[in-house]
Amino acid sequence: MTEVEAVDSHESHLIERIRAGDRGLFHELIRPYERSVYLLAYSVLHSPEDAEEVAQETMLRAFTHLNQLRADVKFKRWLLTIAINEARMRRRKDRKHLYESLDAVQDRAPEGEFMPREIADWRDIPSKALESKELRRAVDRALMRLPPIYHEVFLLRDVQHLSVEETAQTLGLTAAAVKTRMHRARLQMREELSPFFKKRWIDRLPFRKGKNPW
Amino acid sequence: MVSCHEVLRELSNYIDRDVDPRLRAEIEAHLAQCRRCSMVLDTTRKMLYIVGDDRVFEVPAGFSQRLHAALAKGIGA
Question: Is A84 on the interface with B (CB under 8 A)?
Fold first, then answer.
């Protein structure tokens, strides 16, 4: 049995037992997906407080509707679909409905017209640097500048590592739409992050390779 | 030979190995002699490496505890 099959089989077993009345096991069932649900809600709402509330609502909704989960649908995808719907519903209730019209316009923008402005090479990024607050803030700022429809796709595909098909199914899009949005999201993210990561001219000077001369 | 424009249009598919072998070879030939395009490709890959790392995105402190407390109340278990 592969690792994925083992997880699936463990989940099916948990779901069966929860349906049979062992409610407490629901905590265990959702634990691996808490972070994904939160980040997806955050991608739509751009607010940590709202995203947290939506994550809670999503889990409660998943619990009450667990009987509706079909055997041929993965729990993770089903849960993320609930999360995206809950988050979008909340966004519509808020003043943020303005986003929708803006998204529609941007999605119709002609393809292939984007030309990168930032061409400089980036610094090498040591693994340890990924824990720095400064880096996290830079990535978060860049993400916040993505239009929500790109943000959702980017988050599922490039942050959560879902396949194109899984991303399409979760968001109710065609695979082609996912690829288009993902492409634009990637180019924009690269562009937004370039000022933060690009090599400064001083890093390219040979004496920087060794000890500082001063 | 494909142009910079075409390479950029296919960049994302190229990264995902979602282009047919002939186009792939043409893109590679272009990248071998175009510093700008190869730099855009390289920095896009670096960006993907950064955002794909679990440590980069955090949930708020205490998120999981609050979630399970709310859940326990909601489902009565």
Answer: no
Structure tokens at A187: 């180019």
CB atoms within 10 A of CB A100: 14
Spatial separation of the C-alpha atoms in residues A80 and A171, rounded to whole Å: 9
CB contacts < 8 A, A to B, total 124
ipTM above 0.90, yes or no: yes
Decide if A156 contacts B51 (C-beta within 8 A): no
Phi/psi class of residue B76: alpha, beta or left (left: φ > 0; alpha: ψ in -120 to 50)?
left
Distance from CA of A12 to the nearest CA of B (A): 20
The CATH class, in words, for A97-110+117-196 is mainly alpha
Task: List all residues of chain A from 19 to 78 with a beta carbon under 8 Å from chain B.
Answer: 23-24, 26-27, 30-31, 34-35, 38-39, 48, 52, 55-56, 59-60, 63
Q: Provide the residue ranges of all domains of chain A, joining segments of one domain with +.
A: 1-93, 97-110+117-196
Query: How far apart are the CA of B69 and the nearest CA of chain A, in angstroms?
Result: 10
Q: Does A190 contact B44 at a Cβ distance shorter than 8 Å?
A: yes
Q: Coil, strand, or helix at residue A198? A: strand
A198 φ, ψ (degrees, to nearest 5): -70, 155
CATH for the stretch A1-93 = 1.10.1740.10
Written as tens digits, the pLDDT of chain A (214 aa) is 788 888 888 999 999 999 999 999 999 999 999 999 999 999 889 899 999 999 999 999 999 999 999 988 999 999 999 999 999 999 988 765 555 555 544 554 544 467 788 888 888 888 888 888 889 999 999 999 998 889 999 999 999 999 999 999 999 999 999 999 999 999 999 999 998 888 765 565 555 554 444 4
Overall fold of domain B4-75 = Arc Repressor Mutant, subunit A (1.10.10)
